[in-house]
Each structure stands twice: as C-alpha cells, then as structure tokens.
Amino acid sequence: MTTASSDSQPAAQQVSRQKTSQHRPIQRLSPTLISQIAAGEVIDRPASVVRELIENSLDAGANRIEIHARQGGISEIQIIDNGSGMEREQLPLALEHHATSKVASFDELMHCATLGFRGEALASINSVARLTLFSRCANDSHGWEFASHLPQPRAASMPYGAKVLVRDLFASIPARRKFLRNEATEWRHIHQVVRKLALAHDACAWKLSHNGRVLLDLPVADTAEAMHARLAELISPAFVDNALLIDTVSGDMHLSGWIGLPTFSRARADMQYLFVNQRPVRNATLAHAISHGYRDTLYHQRYPAYVLMLELERDAVDHNVHPAKQEIRLRSGRMAHDFISGAIANVLGGHGKSQSVHLAELAGQDGPLNSHANRSTARSFGDFPSWPATRNQPRRANPAQALEDFRNLSLPHQEVAESAANYSQVQAQPPEGDDYPLGHALAQMHQIYILAQNAKGLVLVDMHAAHERILYERLKTALSKGKPRTQQLLFPEGVRLSLQQTESLMEIEQACARMGLIFHRVAPQQVRVEAVPAQAGRFNLQQLIESLADSRLGADQHDLEPGKEADQLTELLYERLADCACKAAVKAGSNLSLAEMNALLRDMEATERSGQCNHGRPTWVQLPLQQIDRLFKRGR
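Above: the chain's sequence. Below: its structure in token form.
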C-alpha cells in the first residue's frame, strides 16, 4: 500500500500542474522576467558578452580594444576601448532595453552599417550580471561611472574612450550558471570570438589577456606584411605559406581574403572564417558556394581552409534573423553563390602551376626520410598521406588497350583520347634554360613517378594522377563548349517518386533537357525518361532521378532559385568524365620515353588545377636543391 501511495502522488501532482497551467489566465510578465528571457536569447556564455561589447566598441570607432577575462570570463570581463565614448546623460539610457543610437527607422535597419542595432546587449548583460560602465568623451575633462545601483553617474578618472566591467555572470541565476562549462572551455570560446573579430577588423589593434596573462597583442595590420603576421598568429604560419590571395569584384559584390591550397586541406572544418560586411556569420548558401568552388580539387572527406570577406550592399543582407546576429539571409542567394563559387574556382585554376607540395624542412630532419614524413610535412602536405617510396608489384598497363577502352566510352571529341593515350606523337624537346616551371624529365622511378629537373631542384610527378587531371580538364572543356550528346532510350523508362520529389524535379525539367536528360511527367508521382546524356554512360535511372529531385529540395535550403541550372546533373556528368579520365590515363607500370614524359610536363603547365588529380591528391612535389644539399650535409 505504501508503495502504491508513493507512486501515485507524483502522478497526481503532475495532473494538478497540468490543470493549473491550462486554466491559468493570461497575465503580463514582470520586468525582471522579461529581461531575463531577453538575455537568454542574446547571452548564453561569457563569449556572448565579449562579442556584444566588442561590437559596441567597433561601432564607436575604436582602433584599439583590450579584453581582459578571469576564470573564463565567468567571474570578470573587462572591455576597454579608445572609441568616442558616451555622454554623461546617455549612460543610464544605455542600460535600457531597445535603446540605441545606431538605428532610428526601418529604412536604417534595412541599410544597417553597424555591427549592433537592437539596443539590447547592455540591458541583457545587466540583467544577468553586475555591470558597470565607464565613459569619457573627447570634450570631457574627466570620465563618468554608472551602474544600475547608482542613482546617477559619478565622476571617474580614466582616459578617453569607454570601459565596461562585467562581474559574476549568472550569479543570481543558478539554473543558468550550471549550464556553463569549465573555465578552460569558456576561455576557448572567448579566444575564438576575439580571433574572428581581429581577422575581420585589421585597422584595429587588439590585446587579449586571461587571468593576468597576455595571450594576444596585435598591432594595426595596415600593410600586407602586417596582415600576414596577424594571419600567422591567429591561424597558423602554415596557412600563410599555403594560401592564395583572392580579390574579385562583380557588380555590388566584392570578395577578398585568402583561400588555402587544396593540398593544405584539413581533417576538420576548423580553419574556415567567413565574414559578410565585416561580420562573422553562418550561411548555408555561402558555405555551399565555397565548397563548390573547391570541387574536383579536394581529397575525399577533407575541408578547405579560408579567410574570406564578402562585401554586399547593405539592403542585400538581412542580419535581423538571429538573436546573436550570427546568421544572415541574402536577398539573392543564387547570385552570391555563383559569384563566390566562380571566383574561388578561377583563382585555384589560375594558380594550377603553383599548387605543388613542397617538401620543406624535410631534409633537415635526422633519421630515415619516411619516418618523419607524416610529422615534418604537415605544413606543406596539408596532412595528405606521404608519397610512397615503394609499391607492391605494379600492374602493367597496355597503352593501346587503354586507348581502345577510352574510345568505347562514347565521349565527345575523340581527338582528346587520341592525344591522351599516345604522348609519343607530341614533340616535346627538353627545355633550354629555365623557361619551364616543371623543368625537363630525367627518368622514371618504379614506373610510377617521373623525375624531372628544374631551376629550383628536383620535381617528382605522379604520372597517372597528372595525366588523369589533364584528361579530365580537356573533357570538361569539350563538354562546356559543345551541346551535350543525347542518347534516346529504345524503351522509355518510368520512375516513381514522392509527390514532393516530383514537384521539385519538374522545376528543373528544362535545365535537365539542356544537359541531355529528357523526361516528362506522366502522373502526379511518376515521370517518364526518354533520353539521357551520352557522356554519363550507364547508371541506375531510378537513383539518378531521385538524386536530382533531392538536390532540388536541398537547393531550397540554400536559397538557390530553381531553373537556373541542373547542378546535380552537371556534377553527375563531371563524375562520369572523371571516371573516364581515370580509366584512360597512363597507368602505373607503363614505360614512357623522355619525349612522352616531357609532353606530360608541358601539358601539366598548361592545365588548370594540375596540382591535384580528380580525387584531390597531389600530382607533383618539389624538392629544392638547398634541401637536397642539406640531406648530404654539403656546405657545412
């Protein structure tokens, strides 16, 4: 009986609570509860406080900002700047909700040129912590101090600018404070916030300390050398050594920054910084555009490294879609997507010759060469597997059979296959002087690699990977210049889909037809495929149509307008062309003459993205002569 009584009591209390909530009348919330609810939307950890206060400092025109934190920012945060400050009469108003000097109308909100605009940061912080403001304007003889417990501001000695002191975050709200992590974790979040803002605002000097220890002290980055030094300190020196400068303008859009070489890819997306109008943001459309720009160049399951700044017209971006202003909405997602993707692809393609992997510092290591490969080449290999010194019995390839297989793939422009499989027809004499970046061939190693000599030293080329990229780029060019070949199906095939998939698929019907895939809707949940692209070869039609429909649904999530192009179909054709190029490329175990090897080197120099094969692996590496001298202790 006792057990039954104890078990039934919580159930009765639960029913009572449900009845109470269901019959409770509508009432106004207290100002304190309103403030704490609003604070929960803006302030979730010490890093949120730091971000909001730094944004206020930047909006005030500060060009030097100091951030001091204790115990991960939980016990104390100080933000000191040399901005314009606030007048004495403005200090009490600054702690009120939705009081701001940054916007005064809806039109200003849509053209917002400041990082902050809601007027709730200081008020939200003040409702969950002890906040004190210090401010001194240029025409004041002294500064002013104000806090919510003070009846009015009082005089304070301080330099020009402002200081905000925040103590005991969430001390009065134990339920919120228990969700904070340990000191080290909260500090890492603060450090990350400051790093992002310091990358976006190079005209500002920064100082960051934790528990009295200075961890960052960055001067103004007003030159290229100073900015490179800032990138090296905030990200890594390896990123600076392996990054390409990008600076492209199209209409009202301006993309600038640095993108890492494909060989400097990462196992995690931990080196990706995107800013829109100097604001660090997250946006699925822009993230997809960057990844799309790296297509065909990244090793599988790798992530590119980049620091990119996108400048748009103020009314083209809606920042007011996230409480912490970390996400944005674009007025024209497709236009921005295509601009960013094309700009990155052009920069990577234009620097194909320089996308080598340098074996820097490798020669200076003691011990066997391969024993240090994974550790000492991280800066240049981008964590790719080391190039192999040996292989198990290489498979012999018959060039004539490879050519015949390539012809049977129904690919356009047979002359591509002809020249690809028979390099002996290409007249490639060894260069005289230093006119060729990849130099001239010396020999083959294990019938896998080409050894070449250039002005810098020794070049090692993976002949299959390099040839694969050359063929792939030629086939893509041929596909883009001519109308895709269409193969009519002898018996049209019906494909059943869900209603949502069918509706989405019909949005790209015309775009697919232009690529050679012709289908028509014959029922609410069925389409009939009548023709397919000849370049795509054999595939499962059901899987193809489903993937196209699902890609259209995914494009809706990226704000990409339908009808512009069948991206998924284009990617499918490229994948098939990549497979064809891989099958037709010269295989490991093939004997090449010096003329054939030199022809391959010349084609590499003239081919975009020749630094990586179709799968993202490096195609060639450079071993400088100085490093070779160090291996043999010459000059010591």
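The chain has four domains: 32-217, 235-350, 357-479+582-631, 485-574.
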